[in-house]
Known about the structure:
Residues 7-82 form the DUF7848 domain. This protein has one helix at 50-62, and strands at 16-21, 31-36, 69-74, 77-82. The protein is an alpha+beta fold and 83 residues long.
Amino acid sequence: MGTVTGTPRSVLRYETWTLQPDREPDAEQVLYAMQCAVDGETSPTSEDFAEPQDWVLRHCGQNPSHHTYREIITRPWRTWRQT
């Protein structure tokens, strides 16, 4: 049997990355929805926040004891390495 002489080596390279909302012309759209915190029902997703707000008003009209909601925003982000 042979003997291993040497030790494993690791090479670490630290890089600086930037993260920001993607506002490029080809970026995905920001999408909005609302979710009822009482029963978990969720509005349709829309690029226009007014549509989920209208859903909340209809939902609470149909369910008078449902007073709390969550806003759900899907926003595209991008990263890149700084050189």
